[in-house]
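hey so i finally got around to running the thing on that chain from the lab meeting. sorry it took forever, my laptop kept dying and i had to restart like 3 times. anyway pasting the input first so we r on the same page abt which one it is
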Amino acid sequence: MKRTIENRKVKGTLVNTVEVPRNDGADLLPTSYVPTSRNRFLFQMEGIDSYVVLSVKVPQIRYAQNKLVPDGRLELRIHDSDDENGAAKILNILTGGSKKPATLKLLSQVGMVLKSFRMNLTPYNVNFGEYNYNSSSFVDILIQFDVDSIALV
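ok and heres what got predicted. didnt touch it at all, straight out
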């Protein structure tokens, strides 16, 4: 910041004045920071409707041999739908056995994509949950995938 010193007369008296340039305020504005929320995401994969996805547990990721390497399995928890073909769709995913592309998008408060993970997943295991007369809660299905590759896009 540059200061200018001048001699001026104020009411007949000679005074040294210092002129300080005005700051435009750009450096005073707060940085936009909002933490990413756990409940704002969109999981997209062929064969699974996005609206039935309850949670996605992403495996740990480490950097090895100049690339991102996933450690562990991705776990996808979904609602069991009352669709008569719902279980068949899930079993088709498992029996396909081939790599399936998927995308996990983390969203802002207004739905803008903040981060996006692209993955190639191979189905590993399906757990159709527990059926119990003592509970009226919904049935969740847990699907585990081996993560073949993962990238932050």
